[in-house]
């Protein structure tokens, strides 16, 4: 879907060629504006010729591109951790609202997309990648990958509420939710950690409503073995470490 949109707006040609400034950006040389400045400064060569225009089309797998004499290459699969803030939507692109992808200015990699979905007002861990196979493994219902959330509630969380959530609750669909994992937080009666292995629409909010409570704040803190970096401010992102990639099997 991303590639199709890029072809429509001229970013990617039918034969796979792309603009030179986009190539520089995706190869990690800098932002699009920085890439254009590099070209204007005469620092970029394509197949032995000094580049003169940012909109020059090149075939990434055939052209030899040098920046200050250093060859550049497009990366394969890339993996980013984003601490999603409230107020942006989880989508690759949207005609009306700001998306999480707008926060990844300067990120290298083609056809990036968010893995899964967080509501507009939900914060926390979001994996951004171009690895479709990994996305399938993490989101497939058959894999039962746990997504863990920090949940703040309108009224105190009781043992009875936790037992109901752990057994599965009716949220107005054909089947009740699968059993969840709960952990009440000492000293915070209106908060808990909730682990679920499904991804139904507004699921956490609907589950808490089903047990007579209301979600006032929601933050995803982990997805499978990948945990949110506590030092990453809201709206910030970084590439996954080698250890994190190994945990995900990529």
Question: Concise description?
Answer:
With 250 residues, this protein is α+β, with helices and mostly antiparallel strands. It has 3 domains: 2-72, RNA-binding S4 domain (Structural Genomics Hypothetical 15.5 Kd Protein In mrcA-pckA Intergenic Region, Chain A, Roll); 79-140 and 226-248, Pseudouridine synthase I, catalytic domain, N-terminal subdomain (Alpha-Beta Plaits, 2-Layer Sandwich); 146-223, Alpha-Beta Plaits, CATH 3.30.70.1560.
What is the beta-strand fraction?
25-35%
Instruction: Tally the structural domains.
Output: 3
Any low-confidence stretches, pLDDT <50, length ≥5? 1-10
Counting DSSP E segments of at least 2 residues, the number of strands comes to 15
How many helix segments? Answer: 7
The CATH C-level class name of the largest domain: Alpha Beta
**Second rung of CATH, namely the architecture of the largest domain:** 2-Layer Sandwich
CATH topology of the largest domain: Alpha-Beta Plaits
Share in helix = 10-25%
Radius of gyration: 22 Å
Cα-to-Cα separation, first versus last residue: 23 Å
H-E order: HEHHEEEEEEEEHEHEEHEEEH
Question: Which class best fits the helix and strand makeup?
Answer: alpha+beta
Mean pLDDT: 91
Q: For the report, how would you describe the main beta sheet?
A: 9 strands, mixed
Outline, from the CA principal axes? elongated
């Amino acid at each position: 879907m991303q590639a199709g949109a890029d072809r429509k707006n001229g970013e990617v040609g039918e034969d796979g060629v792309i603009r030179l400034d986009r190539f520089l950006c995706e190869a990690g040389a800098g932002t699009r504006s920085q890439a254009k400045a590099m070209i204007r400064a005469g620092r970029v060569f394509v197949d032995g010729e000094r580049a003169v225009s940012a909109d020059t089309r090149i075939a990434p797998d055939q052209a030899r591109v040098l920046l200050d004499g250093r060859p550049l290459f497009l990366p394969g699969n890339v993996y980013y951790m984003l601490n999603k803030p409230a107020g942006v939507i989880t989508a690759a692109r949207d005609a009306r609202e700001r998306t999480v992808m707008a926060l990844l200015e300067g990120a290298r990699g083609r056809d990036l997309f968010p893995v899964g979905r967080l509501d507009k007002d939900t914060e926390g861990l979001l994996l951004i990648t171009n690895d479709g196979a990994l996305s399938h493994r993490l989101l497939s219902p058959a894999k039962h990958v746990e997504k863990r959330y920090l949940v703040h509630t309108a009224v105190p969380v009781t043992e009875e509420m936790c037992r109901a959530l752990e057994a599965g609750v009716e949220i107005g669909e054909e089947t009740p939710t699968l059993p969840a994992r709960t952990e009440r937080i000492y000293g915070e009666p209106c908060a808990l950690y909730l682990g679920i292995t499904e991804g139904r629409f507004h699921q956490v909010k609907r589950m808490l409503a089903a047990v007579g409570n209301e979600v006032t704040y929601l933050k995803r803190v982990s997805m499978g073995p990948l945990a949110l970096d506590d030092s990453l401010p809201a709206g910030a992102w970084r590439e996954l470490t080698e250890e994190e990639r190994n945990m995900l099997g990529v």
